[in-house]
Every structure is written in structure tokens, then in C-alpha cells.
Amino acid sequence: KGKGKGKGKPGKPKKSGPREVKGRKLFLVIKETLNELTKKDRSLVLATEFKSQLISLRKLDLGPDNSIQVNLPSSTNPDKTEIFEVALHGPAEARVDEVLKYIKSTTGASNDPLGKPTSDEEDAARALAFPKFPDVVDALNVIFGFGPRSNEDISAVGNSRYFSFKNGGIYKNMVMLGRPLQAARGTFQSLRLGTGRLLLNANVTHGIFKIHGKCDTIFENLGIHRVEMTNGHQIRHLKLMNKFLPKTRVLAKMKFANGKEVNRPKAIYGLAYAPEITRACQNNEHPPKFDKGCEFPGPQNVRFYLASDSNGGGAYTSVKDFYKKKYGSDLKNLPLLNLGTAANPNFTPAEFVEILPGQSVKAKLTSQESTVMVNFACRSPYANALSITTDARETLGLDDGKLDQFGIQVGRQLLTVQGRVLNAPGISYYNSRAQPTQVYPREGSWNVRDIKVYKPGRMIDRWTYINVKPSSRFGPVQQEIVYGFAQAMIGMDIRVNSSPVSPYTEVIDQRGLLHGEADEFFKWAKKNRIQFVLVILGTSDSEIYGKIKTLGDCTYGIHTCCVQADKFRPGKAPYFANCALKWNLKAGGVNHKLHNEFGLIREGKTMVVGYDVTHPTNMPSDKSDAAPSLVGLVATIDRDMGQWPACSWEQSSKQEMLDETLTEAFKSRLALWQTHNKQLPENIVIFRDGVSEGQFAQVLQKELPRIRIACNAKYPKNKGPRISLIVSVKRHQTRFYPTSEESKTSNNNIENGTIVDRGVTQARYWDFYLTAHSSIKGTARPAHYTVLLDEVFRAKYGGEAANELERYTHELCYLFGRATKAVSICPPAYYADIVCTRARCYRPEFFEISDVESVSTAGPGLSTGDSKQVHADLANSMYYI
């Protein structure tokens, strides 16, 4: 396993030294390097990820300097050659035999594979090491990825996702808002260590790409048929499109002096934008000329200086006339593309440019685009399973012979594993006669008709409402509907005044809200001691929602509940009930609890904690580097497990591990528990959300000690709590499919409550997959839990600890307060994720990004700007629901 870097030296080396090669050029250099190596030794078996790693079955002999020279045709002049020196560093040995011995052993850490016994300390260190054998797994993943990465019809995204565009690929265009995007279907693959064998984790995946095809066709599909200088809508449309085009790889049709026509690979600078080019070329001797008032010119709107071959003179000609004379083409007056730069433009008609397929883009999707994406990606379990066993094999090249050269074969059938289904717990409410009553879920859900919440929150005596309209064409929700909502809450035993405080205005338009009217409304609300504001939204604009939540949560300390006008207006009981559950949680109430409580819950001595970190994504590089990572932490306050007050804070951008702030935040949760229970908890069960296997060790080495410090500060010496630390992950690629008619649901998914803790797990890890929820449509995604530390369950349940933890986690999934169904990931992790999402609302300068722009690959940095803290009046509540 060698590390390689390509340094380019076109012709003779320049005094400034060699330059590092990147992007497409790097791919070509490494590809040619493999060709040169195999020319010298046909017996070599090689693989690479075309970036920095080269895998070989034996050591390479490259001479004393460990380098090789390769030649490539010049990208600017095919008659010239560029020379590249490729240096290999290493090598490092990846011992596959050691991995195989490890996974086939069910006892403690094995002796060293070379025959040298290991000490107890080494055994212990290896047992706690996360992940296991990363170098070998990495090398094998490079081998598995080499086939698809070598295929020009396949686009590799990241380390593990592959999208085939052979014969066009499988995609869905998303052009409803003028952004030339498409959703494509591909395959995920990653090697996993199983018990007794190596596993290939494969799944259907989806991604966002730039639309491919002839540019004139793309323009027309976007509704642009010709340049219209006075069409404001078209100009806005083209400005939006122009954010997407830079660096897009294309084939441009060109004709050489000898009359030969070729398609040359080029990159788009952007649309030809007259104001930018005019500024950049103002000092040129013969700058291009544009029709007055034309921002995005077509071929007939721009003239450039064409030098004469014979006498050294020249004259201005239009792009339209030039292409008519040289190619005999009658061009439509579509916007021109610039394949040069602003200072040295290359005006190219859309008819002569074809965007290549497979160009991934990271974009924050609009609500309409998200709907298209979800519908495209939502497929039945059978359809996904069929794709994995057919299309995926072709995309991944599992049968093309490259893997055979390394002695690797992949089974043709999905792996069959054993699972079991846990029983759903009973749910406790009160009935209309104020008596305790139980509801028993069916397929993971239940309804709340004619029942009351388990414990009402504080009295909501002073509350009001406001309508937010996108325009004057939308009327406000009538007052009687608002009063009907109040009666619905009272019917659920939620303590609320039946009459809201009349607002000084019932309606704010969307524009006014963003320009000060919302602030004035909340000032009035604070002055009038308003506790809750019902916000009736006529729009789904995230900027509006974020503004309201920032003013309510941070500036004024007033609870807000946002509802959609079109869903609220009909006054239907299920929607009212769903909103009412949020009001009761915000007021400190408990909506429901488990009927037969789990032992740890019943004793009332266990605090449950969840925390998560969210990072800046899908934004320009300058904002991505500056935007903070956001932390959310929640914890229970009593045995009911219905209230989960939260705290959140910011830390350095793209930093997953929590800093010292965790200690103080954890102290505050312990203090809150002590306030409600007159004592500190004996047990603390922590669910850490969202970290990868490669970060497990850091959680134990960096975060756990900070939690211990918090406990040491609050507990008497040597009387600290028992702690269990469990990582929960929802965003993974493992899926399970039913193997019989008896074990499937009506939509062909596995049954809710399914536990899988063998077959795809490791004997040395304590991990399990739980599908607590019932998937409404599509393929159910289980949650994956890994126990990093356990001082609670083994101490209490001994040999039954694994089963009891699985049951405990499953029953927690029925305690998500704002829903009447089991959720897919346990509430401490779910709530922590919601807290992080809410914290994003407070920083719109970073997270309210709508343009299609790439995410930076730069490293972490410190955030700028002023962070916003939740108001003291809401700090110890479920304000985030």
C-alpha cells in the first residue's frame, strides 16, 4: 500500500519547482502510472482510488528514488507532451491474514499473527481500539472501488458512492425553479468486518448532479428559447443558472485549420455576462462589444475582433456571423457560454456545447426540489433489493475480473440473518372520566381520540395569535378557528385560557415580517406578558420560520408554535391534537408514559441524556469555513421521561468532538435533575448521536472525561454515578428485507420492533440494529446502536444486559412526546438533533443558503459573528419542539 503524489513538469522544470496536480489531471496521471508499471511487469496486480493510494499484492521495485515518470498529451496543444514525476512513499503493509484471524476468533484478542504473544495490556488496548484494522479495511475499500472508478461511465462521489451514467443513467430532472439539477440513482458500497467473515455493505443511494446534455436543449427545457433583453424574469433565471455553471465539464465542438472537427474537453467559466466581461476587458486593444442593455448576450448581441491571417489587420464580427461562415450553422439566439475567462472570453454557442454527465453538486434543495428527490428516492423494499442484486453488481464491477485478480469474490445473494421482534409497550394516558387508561399500539402507532394528556403543564393564561401572509391575495385564518383550537386543547386537559389575548394586529405580510414588523409584534407581546404565540403561516419559507423562532426563543423568551394555514384552517381534530401535544410539552407537561415501566425507569434513579453535533453543509466555501458547528444536549428531569429540557452552544467549525463547554452543560443537567428529584441520579444513560466508527475512540478519550469531570464536581467523592455511553446512528446504509410472507408488513417492510444483533454485527463489539418504527412508505431504515461503555446494564442485569438494553432502547422509542407512534431513533438522540436544527435558525447568515454552490473541503476554523443564546425564560423548557 503506497502513497503517491503526482508533480507536473510540462517540458523543462520551471525555477519555481513542480506544481501539484489536482482534479481530472490527477486521475489521468495516476491512470497512466498504472499503465507504465504494468508495461514493465505484466504480473503486477494493482488498484488505486486515483488520489493518493496505490495497492499492490507485492512490493514494487522503482529504483532508489521510488519514482516513475509518465507522459501525457498537453491539454492545450495535442502536439506537445507534459512530463509528470510520480513519487511513491511507503510502502505500508496491510495484513489481511490478521483480519481474517481476528474475525474468525470468538475469544479475546488473539495472539500476534506473526507468532509473538501479546501482553494483557496489548490485548486490552486492542479490544478498545475503534475502528478495528482501519488500514486493511481502507486498502480493501480501495480495491473494491478501483473497478467503478476506472469506468468512464461511472461517477464516484466521495469514498463509497457510485453512479452509473451508462446509456444516460437513472435520473430525474429537477428544473421547476430554473436550477439545472437532476437526482440520480446509484450504489453505495463499503467493506465491513462481520463475525467470522468479511461483508460488503451495498445499498441503493441517491445524489444531486448537474443536468447533462446539449446546452441548447437544456436552455429550452428551462423555458429559455431566445435572449430577451427586457425580460426581468429571464434575467433572474439566467443569474441563478450562472451560479451553477462555473467549472462544469463539457465537450465543445471545434474545427481546426485543416478542416477537421473534434469535440474537445473544456470547462465552462460561466454564461457570457456582459457587465463582467466589459470591466475585465476595458484595457484591451480590441475589447468585445455588446448590444446596449444586454446582460446575457446571444450570438447576434456580441461582436468580437477577428484578426486577419493575411495582412495582420482584422475587423469586428458577430458570433452569429462567425459560426455561419466557419460551420455553416444558423444559430438560435440563445445565451452564449464563456469557455475562457472574463479577461479573455471564448464565446461559444449553446448548440456547440454538451455538458458531460456525472458531475455531482452539493446543493441545499428547495421544498419543491426536495419533494421531487424524496419521491424519486422512495422505493419499495423489493425494488431496492432487486437493484442491489442486479444493477449494483454491474455498477460496482463485482463480476468484471478485477476483484478476481486479488483473490476476492462476492456472493450473488443478499446475506440472510436472524432477527427477532420485540413487543410494543402499553401507553398510559387519562380518559374523559379523568381515570388512567392504556392504549396499545398497532404497527407502532396509536391515536389519541377521547383521551387526555398524562400530565398537564403550567397554565397558559395569556396567549395570542398572528397570521403571516405571503401576499395580499391570501386571507387570514378566521378567529373562530383559533378559538376552536383552544377548545381542542382544553378537551385534552391542556391548561390553556379558552380566549386568546386579542393581538394589536391579526395579520403581518411576509415582507413586513422580515423588515421589522415581527420585532414590533413581539415587543407588544412581551409588554403584555404573552406566554405563547400561535403563528399561522401562509408560507413554508424557512427564512420566515427562522426569524420567528429567533425572536421568540432568543430575543423575547416567548414560546411560539408555527402552523401551516392550509392545514390549520379546516380545523380537523388530528391536526389540532398534534399541535396541542407541542403546546403541552413547551408548558412543561407530559403527554404520555409507558404503562408497565421498564425497571430502570420505574425506579426513577436514571437520567437519560442525548447530545448531537451538526456541521455546516451545502454552502459556499467562505461561509462553510466560518460557520460554527452546533451542539444540542437534552436530558430527562424525572422518572416520567416526558420532559427533556435542552441547552445548545456553538463550537469551532466542522469539529465533531465536544470541547470543554460539555462539562458545564452537563453540570447544568445534573443540577436540573437534582432540583426536580431532591437527589442526583444513580445511573446516567447517554446516547451520543451521529459519530462514525472511526470517532468512537475519541468519544471515549475526549468527551467521556469531560462528563466525568462534571459528575465529580456534583457528587460526593467516590460516589459518582454509573454511566453507560451508547452511540446511535441513523444515517448509515444497512437495510433489512423480510424473507417470508409472515414476517413482512403491508408495504413489504420488516415488522416494527425488529432487532438484529448477529450476522452483520461483530462478536467483539456490543452493537445492534433496531427498527422500532413502522415505515409508512419506502424502505425502513433501522437505527444502529453501539455500546462504548456500560456500567449500568451489566451491573443490574448481568448476563441479560444485552437483551435488557435492547428492550430499554425499543421502549424509549415510544416516548417521543409530540407523536403518537414509535420513532425510528430513540428520543434522546432525536430531540438532540431537533435542538441542533433549531439552533441553525438563529444563524441565518451562515445556514440560510439557497444558491447552488460547492462545499469547501478546507479544514476546521473558528466561527465569526455573535452567537445567540436561548432566553432565560425558556432555557429549562422544551422550547425547541
TrEMBL record:
It comes from Fusarium longipes. It holds the Pfam family PAZ. InterPro entries: ArgoL1, ArgoL2, PAZ_dom, PAZ_dom_sf, Piwi, Piwi_ago-like, RNaseH-like_sf, RNaseH_sf. Residues 1-23 are annotated as: Disordered. Residues 532-835 form the Piwi domain. It comes from the Eukaryota. SMART domains: DUF1785, Piwi. Transmembrane segments: none annotated. This is Piwi domain-containing protein. Residues 1-16 have a biased composition (Basic residues). PANTHER family: EUKARYOTIC TRANSLATION INITIATION FACTOR 2C. One of its GO terms (molecular function) is RNA binding.
